[in-house]
Amino acid sequence: MYILGINSGEYNSSACILKNGQLKFAIQEERLNREKFTKKFPYKSIQKCLENQKIKFSDIDYVTFGWNPSNHMSRFNPLISSHRSYREHNLYTLSDNLFNLAEREFGSFTKVVHDNSSFPKVYHINHHQSHAANAFYMSNFKSAAILTCDFRGEYESTSFNIGRNKEIFKLDEQNLPNSLGKFYATFTELLGYKSDNDEWKVMAMSAYPYSCKDEIKKIQKCYALGKNGKLELISKYFEYSNFGNRNHFYTDDLRDLFGIKKIEYQKKPSIRQIKIAKALQICSEEIGFHFLKHLYNLTKQKNLVVGGGFFLNTVFNGKITKKTNFEKVYIPYAPSDTGNSIGSALYLNNSILKNKRVRLNNSPFMGLDFKNKEIELAIKKRKISYKKIDNLHKFVAEQCISNFVVGYFNGRIEFGDRSLGNRSIIANPLNKFIKDKINKSVKYRESYRPFAPSVKVDNLEKYFDTEGDKTNNYMEKVFKVKKRFRKDLPGITHLDNSARVQTVNKDMNIDFYKILTEFEKLSGFPILLNTSFNVNGEPIVCTPDDALNTFYNSGIDVLVMGSFAVFK
Hints:
By secondary structure, the protein is an alpha+beta fold. Helix content is 32%, strand content 20%.
C-alpha cells in the first residue's frame, strides 16, 4: 500500500511516500526548483517519490494534505453561501448551508469521495494533527504528551494532545488570534526582518550579553498568561486584518511602545534591536513553558514530542528537560510545515486506516542520492580538473585541519531545514577566524550569526552540558559548550557560550562519523563546524550541478563529491 503525503501552498512545499507504513522517500520542492521556501505545488517532488519506488501515480492508494479546508465551512458565511455565483461554488456553498442547519463540529480530516478507481483516495488532514502525527509517530514512543505550536493552522495556533500507540487524542487547543507563532513573527518584523524567513537571525541575536530588563517589561505588556495554559495577545499591539495583501503584523501602538519611528533591516543590528531580540526570546520561552506546564498537568506523561514551526527555536528546545517535568523529548527533523507531508501521511496510516504501527526509521537522509558515475559526469561536463580520492575520510579531515573550507556532498540529501552531514559546508572549529571567513565570503550573511558543531555521539557529554540528553541528531537543541573547551572551539562557540549541536552516529551516517574520527586523530577533537551547503538566499544544494554552482559562486576552498575532489 502506498500513501503519498503532500505539503503545498504553505511554507516550503514537500512530498513523501509511505510503503506499508514505512517512510521511503521525502524531499522539499525548493531543492528541485531552486526557489527558497517555495509554496508552489510540489510536482517535481512527487515525481521523485514515484521514481524512487519505480511506480506510477495510478499505483498510489491514498494522497494526504496537511491542511483541511473543510474547517473553514464551520462558520456560515451568508455573503458567500446565500449568493452562489457559479455551480462550481457548490463545493463550498452547499456544504456551508447544510452545516448551518446543525451543530458544526468537525473532526480531524476530510475525505474526498469519488468513483474513479484509477485515482487515489484523497484525505485532507487537520494542520495541527499533521504536526502532532509527524512528531509522535516518528518518535517511536508508545505514548507521549504532544504539543504543537505555530502561527496558525486552519484556526488553531496551539494544540495539546496525548498519543497512545496508533491514536492521537486532542485534549485542549488555542486558536487565532492568540498565537505564539504570530507573536514571534510580529517582533521579527518590528526588528526589520522578514517573518517566516528570518526568525533564526532574531534568535541568534538573543545571545548578546546585554541587559534587557526594560525591554522584557515592555514586551510583557503585549500579552497575558491565563489559567489552563491560555495565552492572550493584547490586540492593540498586533495587526489582525493582515492576511492577503498585508504590509506588516505590528501596529503603530507597538512601534510607539518601543519608540521606533522607522523600521528597516540592518546587517549590523543596533544595541536596541539586540535588546529587543533578547527580551523576545525570554518572553517566548515564558509562554512556551506556560504551555508545557499545562500539557504536563493534562497528561502526566514523562515523554514529550513537539511539532510546529515554533520548535525550530533550538534555544528554547535545549531547556525543556531542565525546566519541565518531562524526561524524554523528541523533536522531529522537520517540525515546521515542511514536515506535514510526512505527518499527514502517518496520520492517515495510523489514526484513520488503523494499520499496524511499524517502528519507523527516523533517519533524516530521505532524499535523492547520486552515484560516483553521475557525479563524475557532471564534473567532466564543465571541463574542470578534479581527482579521485582514495582515503576520502582522511582527505576531508586533512583539508579541515589545514583551515580550508570544504563543501561536502555525499549520499542521500537531508529532509528538513538543516544540513546534517550529506549536504554540508564543514571546517575547522579550532580556528578563531573561521566563523568570520565563512559568514563573509561563503554564506554572505550577518557577521553575528553562529555555526553549529557536529560531534561523534559518544563524545557529546564530554564537550557540552546537555542536561542528560544523550543525542541531538537533528541539531534540534542548543547546549552550552563546557567551560574548559570554549577557548579551544571558538569557531562553534556562540556569544553566550552556546552551540546548536548535531550528534553523529555510525548507523545514521557512517561516512561523516569516519571523517570526525579522522579529524580527532589530527586535532584531538571529534568535532567539526557544520553549516548548510548553500549561500544566503538559496536552497541547500541537491544535485552535483547545484554543488558546483555554489562552489564557484562562493569562497569554499575545496569541493568533495562522492569520491572526487575539485579545487580552485
